[in-house]
């Protein structure tokens, strides 16, 4: 299956409906009556809305074919758990001249001209997901486009972090708060099958990419999407 931004965008409404149902239950679970009466908005509820309408489940939740609907839908029992261990990968041979990418049957593995990338586990599992991440790490990862919050390699396509870095700090905090509420799924995701020279090359060009993104923001009168300052202890 060839990658299609149009198809991805067209499926967002369906995914949002499914996610709002599953995610709403996750957020509501464990909330006591006193918390429900608080006037202050719950960041996790805001995060649920953003995640459900931003296409996160398009890539991070494994898809299955639903016979009743006659179409593929995200498997919400594995919501945002990333590419399944030993999950399917497309074996199609990619031609860089005609193909941008090929996608696996479950929409979590992406074969690109320079290698294969797998969707990450975004659940709060401590061993295989975001369970040990801090809010600061999460925001830095999205702002800088660097895995583990500027401590690792560049975040690889097709993750649209250049778009998501335009979220406000409050938006990103809300997303992280929501991700902390969903059921943890123990699912080790394989490292990307991308040659080291490619990663090294992306590391060298990454600062230029950030510069271009900030220049685009400046052209519209917006300040650079800088990472937040370290938390005070």
Short structural summary:
The chain is mainly alpha-helical and 233 residues long. It has one domain (5-219).
Cα Rg: 18 Å
Q: What overall form do the CA principal axes indicate?
A: globular
SSE run: HHHHEEEEEHHHHH
Q: Which strands sit side by side, in order, in the main sheet?
A: 3-4-5
Contiguous low-pLDDT stretches (5 residues minimum) are 1-7
Structural class: mainly alpha
Q: Number of helix segments?
A: 9
| Total individual domains | 1
Distance between the termini: 49 Å
**Main beta-sheet annotation:** 3 strands, antiparallel
Estimated share of beta-strand residues = 5-15%
Number of strands: 5
Helix content: 40-55%
What's the pLDDT, averaged over the residues?
85
Observed structural traits:
233 residues, mainly alpha, three-stranded antiparallel β-sheet, two-stranded antiparallel ribbon, 8% strand, disordered N terminus
């Amino acid at each position: 299956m060839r990658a299609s931004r149009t198809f991805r965008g067209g499926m967002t409404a369906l995914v949002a409906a499914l996610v709002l149902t599953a995610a709403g239950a996750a957020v509501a679970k464990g909330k006591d009556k006193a918390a429900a009466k608080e006037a202050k908005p719950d960041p996790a509820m805001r995060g649920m809305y953003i995640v459900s309408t931003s296409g996160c489940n398009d890539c991070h939740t494994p898809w299955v074919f639903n016979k009743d609907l006659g179409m593929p839908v995200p498997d919400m029992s594995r919501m945002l758990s990333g590419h399944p261990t030993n999950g399917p990968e497309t074996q199609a041979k990619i031609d860089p001249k005609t193909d941008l990418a090929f996608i696996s049957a479950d929409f979590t593995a992406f074969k690109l001209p320079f290698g294969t990338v797998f969707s990450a586990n975004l659940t709060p599992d401590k061993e295989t997901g975001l369970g040990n991440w801090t809010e600061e790490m999460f925001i830095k990862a999205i702002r800088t486009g660097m895995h583990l919050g500027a401590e690792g390699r560049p975040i690889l396509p097709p993750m649209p972090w250049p778009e998501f870095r335009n979220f406000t700090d409050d938006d990103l905090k809300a997303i992280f708060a929501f991700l902390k509420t969903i059921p943890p799924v123990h699912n080790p995701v394989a490292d990307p099958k991308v040659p080291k020279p490619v990663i090294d090359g992306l590391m060298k060009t990454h600062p230029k990419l950030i510069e271009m993104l900030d220049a685009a923001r400046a052209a519209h009168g917006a300040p650079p999407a800088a990472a937040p300052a370290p938390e005070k202890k």
